[in-house]
Design brief:
Elements lengths: L7 E3 L5 E4 L14 E6 L5 E6 L8 E3 L2 E3 L1 E3 L16 E2 L8 E4 L11 E8 L7 E6 L5 E4 L8 E8 L12 E6 L46 E2 L7 E2 L2 E8 L8 E8 L4 E8 L4 E8 L2 E9 L1 E7 L5 E5 L9 E8 L5 E4 L2 E2 L2 H4 L12 E7 L9 E7 L4
Parallel strand pairs: 2-7
Antiparallel strand pairs: 1-2, 3-4, 5-6, 8-9, 9-12, 10-11, 10-13, 13-14, 15-28, 16-28, 17-24, 18-19, 18-28, 19-20, 20-21, 21-27, 22-23, 24-25, 25-26
Length: 386
């Protein structure tokens, strides 16, 4: 005799929930809420999850009635990986690619973590490169070629044998390491005498490996559109390689828009007088402004390991520099040019060579970056007004 069970649940709102006719085999329902196990003498065993998977809402009004139901023929399992808590390094390390992740649910059913890798843009199948314990949340991949882009997939085994979905049981992303080399040998003076405090400077022979591609935006711009997965607005880092024709009118490098209806603009220019300027606007109002005069770091170093600077007035439209803007809730925005912090402490005591002027940095407005606790970034535009 087949038994049928009708489960009635009364919510605190006064809604009535009706369970569908259960299956005749064990069903596990997971999600947010309380789990109840029901077992009968005929060995019919049901695990019923109440509170997570409401499809319809019950309400009764004049000439209007609807029903709340739990579709118990569907398996409800929350995402295993936290979608804004994983990172794959992109050139941060000279000898490795580092992967970090965070598990948000399903810890009890994960058996292990598997790491897969393939070269980006090739038809080669992905290769399993590591199997880790389920309580490991970091992996360093040392078996990579410098400058090669790799696509990684981190999979939580045991969550599902049938369903493959990002964040549900795997995460994926692209990473790479910077090219490096090893120099070895002995240094001695004439007659074989040892030499103290020697600096070894390696210089490339032949063609320089500094070629790349760029996009010239003339009246157009690039946009992400509405992001499928919003980004937390409390910490954000925006980076670009860029160059400018000297102009007293600033161009928007980045614009982004948040779930709270706020808009931010990061504006930059090199003036005809040779001043490098970064402005940050919130809803068209200044929150941050920095001027750098004299020179900027090129990102190169000399034989003694000191930064090489170049006069701003000597920059041309063919000179690219790397710009990073870091904004964190409760702190003033931070600007980096070619990985050097644009701060008085870092620049005012710089020693420059030849006719290169010393850099001088000035701040005209330094309000703290503020966001709401749950505020998200919904869209990012690039060069919308260049």
């Amino acid at each position: 005799m087949i038994k049928k069970i009708l489960l009635l649940v009364v919510c605190i709102w006064g809604f009535t929930l009706h369970a569908q006719i259960p299956q005749s085999k064990n069903q596990i329902f997971t999600g947010s809420g309380a789990q109840q196990e029901i077992q009968h003498s005929t060995n019919l065993n049901l695990n019923i999850q109440v509170g997570g998977a409401i499809l319809f809402q019950t309400s009764t009004e004049a000439n209007n009635k609807s029903t709340v139901a739990f579709p118990y023929s569907i398996l409800y399992v929350p995402n295993t990986f936290v979608n804004d808590r994983y990172q794959i390094s992109k050139g941060y390390y000279p000898d490795r690619v580092r992967l970090n992740w965070e598990i948000g649910a399903n810890e009890n059913i994960i058996t292990n973590i598997q790491i897969f890798r393939k070269e980006l843009g090739t038809s080669n199948p992905e290769q399993l490169i590591a199997t880790l314990a389920k309580d490991v949340f970091e992996y360093d991949d040392f078996q990579t070629q410098g400058g090669q882009l790799y696509e990684y997939r981190v999979k939580a085994q045991g969550v599902s044998n049938t369903k493959e979905e990002e964040f549900f049981n795997f995460i994926q992303g692209i990473g790479f390491r910077n090219p490096t080399a090893t120099v070895s040998g002995n240094i001695s003076y004439e007659g074989g005498n040892p030499v103290k405090d020697v600096t070894v400077y390696a210089e490339a022979v032949g063609a320089e490996n500094n070629a790349g591609n760029s996009i010239y935006l003339n009246g157009g711009y690039v946009t992400t559109g509405k992001l499928n997965k919003s980004i937390n607005a409390d910490k954000i880092s925006l980076q670009t390689w860029t160059t400018f024709v000297k102009d007293d009118y600033a161009g928007n490098l980045f614009d982004y828009y948040t779930s709270n209806g706020e808009s931010y603009s990061i504006v930059s220019k090199i003036t005809t007088a040779g001043v490098f300027v970064i402005d940050v606007y919130k809803n068209s109002s200044y929150i941050f402004n920095i001027h750098v005069r004299g020179s900027l770091p090129t990102g190169e170093i000399d034989a003694l390991g000191n930064d090489i600077y170049k006069n701003i007035r000597d920059f041309t439209q063919n000179d690219f520099y790397h710009l990073s803007l870091v904004m964190q809730k409760g702190e003033k925005p931070k600007v980096y040019i070619n990985a050097r912090a644009m701060t008085p402490e870092n620049l005012n005591n710089v020693e420059t060579a030849g006719n290169t002027s010393k850099p001088q940095v000035s701040f005209y407005r330094t309000a703290n970056y503020t966001t709401a606790n749950t505020e998200k970034i919904d869209q990012i535009d690039i060069a919308i007004a260049l």
